[in-house]
Amino acid sequence: MKSNLELVNDCDRFSPNSDPSFLYQFLINGYACPFGYLLESTVSTFSWPECWKLDHEQKTVKLLGSSLEERNKQVHNTLVAERDRGSFQILEGWTSEIFSVHGPHKEVVLSIPRVAAPLFGIVTYGVQLLAYQSDPGDRGFSIWIARRAKTKRRYPNMLDSTVGGSLPTGETPFECLVRESAEEASFSEELIRTRAKACGTVNYVFRTDERAGGELGLFTPEVQFTYEMELPKDVIPTPGDNEAEEITLMSIEQIKTALGKGEFTPAHGCIVLDFFIRHGILNFENEKDYIEIASRLHRTHGFPTA
Amino acid sequence: MKSNLELVNDCDRFSPNSDPSFLYQFLINGYACPFGYLLESTVSTFSWPECWKLDHEQKTVKLLGSSLEERNKQVHNTLVAERDRGSFQILEGWTSEIFSVHGPHKEVVLSIPRVAAPLFGIVTYGVQLLAYQSDPGDRGFSIWIARRAKTKRRYPNMLDSTVGGSLPTGETPFECLVRESAEEASFSEELIRTRAKACGTVNYVFRTDERAGGELGLFTPEVQFTYEMELPKDVIPTPGDNEAEEITLMSIEQIKTALGKGEFTPAHGCIVLDFFIRHGILNFENEKDYIEIASRLHRTHGFPTA
């Protein structure tokens, strides 16, 4: 059985006290702060065109474009070339989805194809909803837990939150939640707008592993906007697309067992632990690593965010 | 009007990205990790007896005792001598209260008089309870807010949580909450045991200011165990000791106004903001610094904790 702190470490794989000096910083011309981390192996695989400036002594990779439009085009062309060369396995999953990189004043400084985010180690965003039934007999709650489809590229068949998804450029977290909730659980727009409640963020720096597909050890700092929603007993979430195999009502004890067996994806294990902390299911008296877990789930990132 | 991020910065005054190299590290013989930070002015004011080893090059102050009992005696004698010499204003508030310092395996490695904690910059602990009434007409909640007594040494007359207190050595957070709730708000033990719910921690590194009394700029990293409790409308909290002037039911709008005017103590402003984040009163769509606030309130400390 994995301890809860092991579950956190399995997701937040580069703790705030880790030494980042072996990594290249991703810089953008005109900005003093870094925007992400690249592995040395990533830097040496790219055939950097002229719009990039590398400094192997300072370990920096700088994008030189002076406007958002120019930078977007430079990054897009660079990545298309690498995709066509077949340099990175991760680029084989290419989609039309775009992620935004934000500057110190939250302004968008770059848009980047979603699949390439882990190559540059930029902060990405998502939304996560746990829908629950109030259940006084069982620690107060039972939670609707999705099982990911067997056909998913990342973490097939593992347990997930009720609804979750990545935040694309141009959508606010709540509107993203409304859309994903309809797609993934067949929740009506009205249900989400009247019942879903924001509860903060869960932050971690994941590093890609076998189960995530593609290159190993890439940095993916993430901010997950968390939501919860009490569901009336007559509302049954139903998968509306092919993301989830099924969505099942699980008791707290069943969820604890599944966590301990590693049945949740690393990120969704943390989403559930955050719910447990917020609702007193885990507390100082019953969880030996309470202080560390409660703060690690909300760790700060060293980069500007949205 | 102060922004919510300004309120966080007013409490967490040494952000996780700050450079600690101007500070002395507090070390204990036999342990590799530091346990706190001392200002240079603190180091030069102490007349360190032989049980301490100073290294001005490495900027470390090491306690040499090899057992818990020996270390406790050494620290106690060192501090009594300074108190009698009148070296530090902060030691004038001497009480019998003791705080524990924890090691990497959460074991107690030292007990230290409470008043001296800021001199060594060790992590201290507290409990904070917000009792609320469910109020569908007003954003869902109104909260019982205490006003600190005019006679309090620290932050007299400012706004506070419903119940709060420091965690002394040997008491668990929940038992501390039961005791403080009876003392400060006349809540029955049964009420707290059946209704109060742990919701995580709020962490910050405060630095003492004029309103805190004593020396300025001392480091006080704190972990506050947060609790919330829905109160039936017929339960009215009443100050049971002389800590609070009054405890008043305030609407969310009234609390927001009081926060903006700086009427809460720095720490209790953060406790309220954490409640606002947890319950969706603040969210990404209405708070421009949402991501930073949601994570800073739970920042990690660089020291071992309980």
TrEMBL record, chains A, B:
Residues 124-272 form the Nudix hydrolase domain. Signal peptide: none annotated. Transmembrane segments: none annotated. InterPro entries: DUF4743, NUDIX_hydrolase-like_dom_sf, NUDIX_hydrolase_dom. This is Nudix hydrolase domain-containing protein. It comes from Stereocaulon virgatum.
